[in-house]
Amino acid sequence: MSNEVVLKCTDIKRYYQQGPQELKVLDGVEFSANRGERVAVIGSSGSGKTTFLNILGGLDSPTTGTVEINGINIHDLGDKKMAGFRNRSIGIVYQFHHLLPEFSATENIALPMLIAGVKPGEAREKAERLLNQVGLQDRADHRPSELSGGERQRVAIARALVMSPEIVLMDEPTGNLDSRTAKEIAALMSELNQISQCCFIVITHDMAFAKTMDRRLKLDEGRLVSIE
Hints:
A hairpin with a 2-residue loop joins strand 9 and strand 10 (223-226). The chain starts with a strand and ends with a strand. The strands form two sheets. Strands 6-7-8-3-9-10 form a six-stranded mixed beta sheet, with helices on both faces. It has helices spanning 49-56, 79-89, 105-115, 120-133, 149-161, 179-196, 207-210; strands at residues 5-18, 21-34, 38-42, 64-69, 72-73, 90-93, 167-171, 199-203, 215-220, 223-226. It is built from seven helices and ten strands. The protein has one domain: Rossmann fold (3-Layer(aba) Sandwich), CATH 3.40.50. The protein is of the alpha/beta class and 228 residues long. It is globular.
């Protein structure tokens, strides 16, 4: 892990209007993460974890505050530029893998590269290389329905990494997995992190999984606090 800051949040606030009342979900979040760092964020249901992750990924906008990735304020980009930036620089893994059912594992992984205009042959070659890294080289032509839950999540992680992003955001990546498979995913993340040196930000309720991260934070009353 380097000391180079790749992600910086400054005074992030996210309020929602509920009739005459204002609901404060995030209330002045200050946060930064370095290249290659793995950070776990925990918190009770409704604490704003997913809202926080969506703001980091440019899928939602803060009421006030800034999110900078490599010094770029992502919420100043506009929708079209944000979509392109997200494709290049941010990988996202959800609790439910969101793989396209009609595509093979290789095709699902290659999709972000194809969207970016990479030649099909080059995209397939890198997708196959990542399949090998996640231990699924013998599942290249299998569709999601032919894969186990752990295998589908491995494909989703490979897809998130295929564009060599600065940051990978993960929302409960082990939430639907048994404890043994969750441990396998944690070990895989550690291995891929060492290879790619990208920054992993992980929302999780799984404390055993959180303990495998470099740093653990809790979202409490709209702010992030260390739980070391």
